[in-house]
Amino acid sequence: xxxxxxxxxxxxxxxxxxxxxxxxxxxxxxxxxxxxxxxxxxxxxxxxxxxxxxxxxxxxxxxxxxxxxxxxxxxxxxxxx
Length: 81
What we know:
This protein is of the alpha+beta class and about 80 residues long. About 30% of the residues lie in helices and about 20% in strands. It has a two-stranded antiparallel ribbon with strand order 1-2. The longest helix is centred in the middle third of the chain and has 19 residues, at about 30-50. The relative contact order is 0.19.
């Protein structure tokens, strides 16, 4: 479910316009884009996947593709009692 949430641009799902993540971080300086993307990822997962808690968001950087952000999201699965 988390992969689907993160792969969906916000506004692209009819009747669920808030589903997914916003692309407002595009064309921003890298440090600003990282902070914005972390916020979007956390907010989207908290809103749409209550069984998961975001523990960490890291970025893999590839010198062959400068400017490309590839997030790695670490989550903890909540166990209902």
